[in-house]
Amino acid sequence: MRRDSNRHQEPSRSQRKAELVAIIEQQRIDILVAAERWQRTSVSLDAGWQRLKRYRALAYLAGGALLVSGARHPDSLMRMMKRAAAGGLLLSRARQLLRQVR
Q1: Which domain of life is it from (predicted)?
Q2: Whose CA, among 3, 15, 60, 90, lies 20 to 30 Å from 21?
């Protein structure tokens, strides 16, 4: 079958390939930029995690003590957990307010 010469011509195969290669290159650049940004923002988180890993044995010991204490006096453990959760929420709110003020 013949194609009408009045119809809009489709790009040639090599033109389409060049367009796709350009799109892929741009996506690669976008991924590299996003990876760099992610690494920069996660440095403080990684440092905090490494700091916590140093005190892992101490955390296990404290957790064990809390479990023993909680088994003996469950009401006081629940009270402590509620206070810790409230303190964490208060700290989070304070950080948000400080960010807004800056």
Answers
A1: Bacteria
A2: 3
User: Is residue 78 a contact partner of residue 69, using CB atoms and an 8 Å limit?
Assistant: no
Q: What is the pTM of this model?
A: 0.43
Whose tokens are 């009401």? That residue is 75
Asked whether the beta carbons of 48 and 41 are under 8 A apart, the reply is no
For residue 54, the surrounding DSSP H or E stretch is: helix 13-54
Mean pLDDT across the chain: 88
Residue 2 pLDDT grade (very low, low, confident, very high; cuts 50, 70, 90): low
Exposed/middle/buried for residue 77 (C-beta within 10 Å: 0-12, 13-18, 19+): middle
How far apart (Å, rounded) are the C-alpha atoms in residues 79 and 70? 11
